[in-house]
Amino acid sequence: MVAQHGSVENLVNAGFWKGRKVLVTGHTGFKGSWLVLWLRQLGAVVTGFSLEPPTNPNLFTLASVTGDCTDLRGDIADAVALQKTFLDAAPEIVFHLAAQPLVRESYRNPRETWKTNVMGTLEVLEACRSSDSVNTVVVITTDKVYENPERGIPFGEDDPFGGYDPYSSSKAACEILCASWRRSFMPGDSKRKIGLATARAGNVIGGGDFAPDRLIPDFVRGWESGSAVRLRYPQALRPWQHVLEPLSGYLLLAECLHGDAQKFSTSYNFGPLEADIRSVGEVADAVCQFLGTLWEHEKSSQPHEAGLLKLSSQRAWEQLTWKPRFRFTDAVSQTCDWYKGWRLGEDMRALTLTQIQNYQTLPPIVK
C-alpha cells in the first residue's frame, strides 16, 4: 500500500507543555539536545542532568542549549546527586535518555555500559519513586532489545528480549527492570499513580550527531577530510528515521501517560514505514548524493552486528495516534542540510529550531 500524507495537524499539544516542569537525563547528548530545544519551544520548564557533552563538536554547544534549561552535570548512577536534582527541580515529567549508546563502545567497555544503562536507570526509577512531584516517566531504550533471529519480520513490543552485544543486552535488561518497577512500585496508592513507559526507537539520524562509529557522523568526517567512508556492513537493513520522529513520539507518549497512567504504561516502538527501512549502503548512497562523498566496503573482521532489523510501530499508530512525517529521502535531506549549514558557519541554533518548527507543520503519513 502506498503511503500518503494526511491533513496538517499539530501532533504535540503546546498547551499541555506550557509551564510544565520536565527533567531530561542525558540532555547534553544528541537526542537530548534536540528534545530540550523542542520542550523550550513548547514552553516547558526544563532541568537537565547529564555528563559533559560526549563529543567535540556537539549539538548542545553549537545550538546554545545550556540557556534553555537548568543545566546540571553528574552521573546518573550517583544516587545522592540524582535525589538532590529531583528534590530541587520537582519535575512532573521525566524523560530518561542518559545512556552509553554505542554498540562498538560496549564491546570495548562492557562494564561501564552495563553500569550506566542498567544501574543508572535503576537510580533514575528510584528517584522517581521517592519524588513527591513525578507522575510521568518515559524511559528510552532501543530497537535492539529484541532477540533477533533475522527472519525479516518486524518486531512488535511483545516479542522476546535478547541482545547479542553488551549494549543491546544492557538495554534489554533495562526493559525488564522497568517492567518490574512498574508492576512492583509504580501503581502507587489511590491518590497518586506514576505512569511509566518505555520507548524503543529505530536508528536515528539528524543534524548535530558527531559520535564515533555512527554512519552519518562518519560521512561528515569523510566529507571534511575528503576521504572515502569505510562501511562495515553495507547490506545491513535498519529502520532509519530522523531524530524528530521518535522525539515527537516521546512527547505524545508523555501526554497520554499523564492523562491515563494505567492505560499507557507499557512499551512502544517508534520507527519508519516498512518501505523506508533501508540498507546501510542505500543510506550511504543517498548521503553521497547530498554531500558529494564516497564510500567503500570495509572487509576486515568486525564485531558482530545484526544484519536485519525491522520494527512494527502499530501500537503507537493505534494507541497514541502517532505517525511519522518524513519519508526516507526527507530524513536524509534534512540531516544533510543541517551539516551543510554547520560547515558554512550558519547560526546552528536558529537552523535547528527552524527544523523543529517546520517539522510540526508537516502532515502525518497515512497508509
Overview of this structure, please?
This protein is α/β, with parallel strands linked by helices and 367 residues long. It has helices spanning 14-17, 30-41, 59-62, 79-89, 103-108, 110-130, 166-184, 215-225, 244-259, 261-264, 280-291, 314-320, 328-343, 348-361, and strands at 4-5, 21-25, 45-50, 70-73, 93-96, 136-140, 195-201, 203-205, 229-231, 237-238, 240-242, 267-270, 278-279, 295-297, 365-366. The N and C termini lie close together (7 Å). The longest helix has 21 residues, at 110-130. The chain is globular, with a radius of gyration of 19 Å. Helix 8 (215-225) runs parallel beside helix 11 (280-291) and helix 11 (280-291) crosses helix 13 (328-343). It has a domain at 15-202 and 242-271 and 309-327: NAD(P)-binding Rossmann-like Domain (Rossmann fold, 3-Layer(aba) Sandwich), CATH 3.40.50.
Based on helices, strands and strand pairing, what is the structural class? alpha/beta
Per CATH, the architecture of the domain at 15-202 and 242-271 and 309-327 is 3-Layer(aba) Sandwich
How far the N terminus sits from the C terminus, by CA atoms, comes to: 7 Å
For the biggest β-sheet, the strand order reads: 4-3-2-5-6-7-12
- What is the average of the pLDDT values? 92
Give the proportion of residues in helices. Answer: 40-55%
Q: Tell the overall outline.
A: globular
CATH superfamily of the domain at 15-202 and 242-271 and 309-327: NAD(P)-binding Rossmann-like Domain
Radius of gyration: 19 Å
Our estimate of the beta-strand percent is 5-15%
Please work out how many helical segments DSSP would assign: 14
CATH class of the domain at 15-202 and 242-271 and 309-327: Alpha Beta
The ordered H/E elements are EHEHEHEHEHHEHEEHEEEHHEEHEHHHE
Number of strands: 15
Low-pLDDT segments, ≥5 res: 1-10
Task: Predict the CATH topology of the domain at 15-202 and 242-271 and 309-327.
Answer: Rossmann fold
The largest sheet, given as strand count, sense and whether it forms a barrel, is: 7 strands, parallel
